[in-house]
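Quick illustration, no need to memorize.
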Amino acid sequence: MPETTQQEVGRGLWSGFAAYGIWGLFPLFWPLLEPGAADDILANRMVWSLVAVVLLLVAQRHWGWIRPLLRQPRRLAMLGAAATVISINWGVYIWGVNTGHVVETSLGYFINPLVTIAFGVLVLKERLRRAQWVAVGIGALAVAVLAVGYGRPPWIALTLAFSFATYGLLKKKVGLSGLESLAAESAFMFPFALGYLVYLEVAHRGTFGHTVAGEYGWGHTGLLMLSGVITAVPLLLFGTAAVRVPLSVLGLLQYLAPVFQFLIGIAVFHESMPPARWAGFTLVWAALVVLTWDALRRVRADRARIAAAAAATAAAASAGPTAATGPTAATGPTTATGATTATGATGAAPAADALPVRP
């Protein structure tokens, strides 16, 4: 591998670690915004996210995608739906973290891949491999065990998992990059968020800009504004990683965020973990191990098929023009299948929106 390519992959890997690391450390940030309530924090995050993204678009002079998008009402409607769903996700996440449910929020992102697979079957009519069915079954059992452990269904985790999976499905259909998608979604929610902030001020519930001694202070206002930056920065880091590392590696990196959240919930906030919860989480992790093993096995099989197809093509080419036009020629079914597989299996750069925006 050329040195320049190694450097690019290394940069992408570190960017991926940074992106998921920041997302994983989010539980340490949202409590800093208290005494702001979850709805106040969410509205400020929406407003300042648009400000941050617009500044990034200005710096990159990246505006050409807007006009074609405005001429496509169906994509705009899906963006509106995606904005609504991710707002629910963000709001529940902030509320969960600030009310002492960090471990349960991490559970939501642990089970999210399983919910995404279930959506693939129910919505996209995809066919699952046996290992995927096993993983989904173990995940369903884990939710049942956790419901017993919590004395209720883990609704925070389920809301986060299902809203995030729905958001990913909508994002896949819209087909915008991460930065473009966040800009459009933030623009869609901006008037609602700004109007809600005005309402909070009128109702004397808002915290932005208040400097009453001993109550809020300008530091609190600065942190509210910073919420837009910390929403945009990991997304840019993720975009850097997505075009430089294989999708299989990116899929493994995504588990860093809920792992960090889980550890923070246990070690920093000292949330209780009775045996039933440990059992439920252990089942979830077992399901993810099965899912990861199956994905890596599939990647190795795809690479072997690509290598075989490339060898067949090279052999046909070296045999001369007559053989090249035969059934094993580069235009034949074998090579075509290999070429189709190559995009995912060789680690070709996935789109920057391969995985949707984290909380």
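The first helix runs from residue 3 to 24.
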